[in-house]
Sequence to fold (119 residues):
Amino acid sequence: MNGLFKSTRVFIAEMLLAGITLLSVWSAFAVRRSCDRLLACTDAALASPAEQLCALRECWKAESRLLHYFVPNQPLTDLNKAILRLDALSQSQSDELHAELYAVRADLLWIREHEMTVF
Fold:
């Protein structure tokens, strides 16, 4: 009976370790995939800001939900502020629009390359 109890504990420990490992791998993959999609939207907005800013905003709405589960809050808060500023910069036809788009791109690359997951 004692041997069965020990093997059950070992089995549970192995399953927990496997679950944590799978979650860590999946979170890194999810962060990279979301950042790649956002980078594609950002690059399209750099090519033609007038038409693609709305698409970037929609892409951010879709991808930020998943990113909030796996990336610490501070980098995403800064990125959210930058993306929300883009419409105001576009409407005022500011010269800062391209600089802000490049800043968004740099933040996304930083998150993607460092695989900033909470796991």
About this structure: Residues 2-47 form the longest helix (46 residues). Helices lie at 2-47, 49-70, 73-91, 96-114. The radius of gyration is 20 Å. The chain has a mean pLDDT of 90.
